[in-house]
Amino acid sequence: MATTAPRLGMHGIGKSFGRVPVLTDVDLTVDPGEVVALLGSNGAGKSTLMKILTGLYNRDGGTIQVDGEAVDFKDPAAAVASGVKLLPQEISVMPDMTVAENIFLGDMPLKRKFGIKQVDKDAMRIRSRELLDQLGFANILPDMLVKRLSVAEQRIVEIARALAGKARILVMDEPTAALTEQEAKMIFKIIRRLKENKVSVIYISHYLSEVFEISDRIVVLRDGRNAGTFITADTKRAEVLAAMLGNTVDDLYDVGTPGVAGAEILNVEKLTIPRKLEDVAFSLHQNEILGIFGLVGSGVEVLGRALYGALGPLKTAEVRLGGQSYRPMSARNGKLAGIGFVAAERKKEGIIADLTVRENIALPFEERFERGLFMSQAEEAQHAIRWIGELGIRTRGPEQKIRTLSGGNQQKVCIARWLVEGVKLLILEEPTRGVDVGARREIYGKLRELANRGYAVLILSSDVEEVAGISDRSLVLDRGRIVGHFERGAKPAELMAATGNDPAFQAP
Amino acid sequence: MAQSIETHTPSGAREQMLSLFGKPWSGVAMLGIFYLILIAVFSVLSPYFLTLRNMLNIGGNVAYIGLMAAAGTPLIIAGGLDLSVAAIAGLTGVVISMLYGMGFPIWIGVLLAIVVAAAIGVVNGLFTTRLRLNPLIVTLGMMSIISGIALVLTGGLTRPLMVPGFNWVGSGRVIGIPIPFIIMMVTFVGLWIVMTKMRFGRYIYAAGGNAEASRLIGIPLEKTVITLYVISAISGAIAGTILGAMLGAAGPTAAGSQLLTVIAAIILGGTSLNGGRGSVWGTLLAVLILGTLNNGLTLLNVSSFWQDVTRGVVLMLAVSLDQIRTRALGE
């Protein structure tokens, strides 16, 4: 290492969006054939750093060197040309093309026949075969249609594509997200092969156990800064967690005193959805905020909407709502039973962009603003104005189109919708996703206020700090099961540690 | 006024233009201006154009098209599309004339045709909502089925439909105003009230604006959309009745060629094909513009083939302008 330049050297990288700094003076080096895990909680700056590396974003400051040479990628194509390749979390293959065509997508070998340039299919097949053999997958045939492959095999095709493009630095973003354990092992096998071939890998994952299994070195980011670099073999999991999450208590969550839990509002038992949730049970009371934390794929994405009814009738679940037996059937049914639901994807599932703030707020319970046959726009407006005031929604007025509001204010509208007589339970998925820090604090404050007014609040989130910070009690979901119960004041690291309970992945 | 414009920098003036351009009502206002210009131009070119008689004629002639366009507007706003509506109009005339020929009272035929149309609307609605099929394909198929049945029933022939009381619906007038025009205007006003003043209207815009969000809010999406398909289909039946009464004959393909005019009018009127946006007044203006264009060109002795070309040009121009307007509004 002393004499040769590292494969990648990023130094003093800075980036801000508007006036908000996202990265400050960040360093990252990777040696040839080294696997470096890049860790950090949501919003720590991992993906921004990788987008700068792969030419998707311009940096504001700092230098990037590949094999000792200064580079400046203006677009992703320039990065790919220098051998820097990103494998995004979502697999991007062409399902109706063959394996070979996918591997050489964008750079197919050509030959000239009858004076016309055309794709050299034989060359493509032969080179695909070589690449797949090199990765150790003789069972994947170049002529197979990619849609016939398993998700894991599609991943492998993607990796082969990166190698065909002579990738020297491979950025893998949660490569095992949609895979089973066995399949994940397969990916690790490939990464080891890549190491042998001196390909450098930057590995992004939320799963600490994976990181400890595959990486040589761990680089941790927190709040857009370097928060520690560890040699994996000499490091304990707790040290990494401490670096990731910090030990300071954030005043983000210091937003009012919790009340005393009242009557039981929700009781869930034996909730099972095949392949997604397994025998989930918990209860939730009036005046209480219950947070459920889980990583992507843990079931945290489905639990809330399943209870609300948005996934259709639940066959295996015993649910009591406000003391009465309740069977999740449909969203409409859940609403009428007194559940308010705020979905994770605000743009796709929350706001109706072309409608006004007033209409967005009044929409779920329009019948309450009806006078005879007609809507009372005045009453809708009055109701909207009340909640614009109480939730501190920054808008020019109830007639402003919701799409012109900031993410945080849109989210408040999505909450305001449900604040009517008769709703007792609020279920919120990722309540502050895509919301800036200032608005996050406000939303936490309003949730606390609502709980103190008597609502039962259920939060489902993949943001461990959020769950630990705001909840009166918290649960941890992992692979569809509840694996941890915590009282108020639990540290984010404790919650995070609870997810890594799989013995097969037991880290040092 | 003039002074205030002068004091603006060029970019300020441009911004002002853009913001004016970006007002929600600017689309309908632009159509209105275009309509007035069109009337002015034809008035200059033809002495017969700007007479009360001719204007009322235009109103009467476009009525059955306007009726279908009116009902199609909320459907497209809600994210649907009905290509079968004109075929339903054709089938309606056939059903009425056949039943009348069999000795039933004429209004029984009308009633039955409306019931049949409503059933077709339910089928369209069920296929697109329950089976989540693309409305373009479902209603295209339905169009083919219905016009096929109409041809089978008549053997492709046009049947006479001369019943004095009935023909009055097509050609009669009340204080000088053609009855078809009155029916159309009542429909427009009625739909406007439903769409802006009633709960159902809120659901229409919500369903087309964001179907998934609407479902998660617990809005009765399917019911809303199916109802709109039924309304559209019934508008086809009434349009077919009016057309049959006007012509004194029922042809299986009588209205088929007007399908494109119906869709063109809705789009020209500023309704987004992606759903969520639009108004019936835009559609009404567009119907009048297309009707005026036809009428004016006919008065000027322009061949009807050129009228198709003109209609296409106007449509593409209007849609381009609307696209520019939407961009000015900002994503």
Can you walk me through this structure?
- Chain B: InterPro entries: ABC_transp_permease.
- The complex is a heterodimer of chains A (508) and B (331).
- With 508 residues, chain A is α/β, with parallel strands linked by helices.
- Helices cover 32% and strands 27% of the residues of chain A.
- The two termini of chain A are 27 Å apart.
- Mean pLDDT of chain A is 88; it is low at 501-508.
- The two termini of chain B are 31 Å apart.
- By secondary structure, chain B is mostly helical.
- Chain B has a single domain (31-42, 51-324), classed as ABC transporter involved in vitamin B12 uptake, BtuC, CATH 1.10.3470.
- The longest helix of chain B has 27 residues, at 221-247.
- The A-B interface holds A 305, 308, 310, 330-336, 341, 343, 348-355, 359, 362-364, 366-367, 370, 373-375, 404, 417 and B 197-199, 201-203, 205-206, 209-210, 212-220, 276-277, 330.
Count every helix of chain A, treating DSSP H or I runs of 4 or more residues as helices.
Answer: 17
What proportion of the residues of chain A form beta strands (DSSP E)?
A: 25-35%
Which regions of chain A are unreliable across 5 or more consecutive residues at pLDDT < 50?
501-508
Q: Give the overall form of chain A.
A: globular
The whole-number mean of residue pLDDT values of chain A reads 88
Major beta sheet summary of chain A: 6 strands, mixed
Count of DSSP strands of chain B: 4
CATH topology of chain B: ABC transporter involved in vitamin B12 uptake, BtuC
Distance between the first and last residues' Cα of chain B: 31 Å
Oligomer, anyone?
heterodimer
InterPro entries (chain B): ABC_transp_permease
Membrane topology (chain B): Multi-pass membrane protein
Subcellular location (chain B): Cell membrane
Keywords (chain B): Cell inner membrane, Cell membrane, Membrane, Transmembrane, Transmembrane helix, Transport
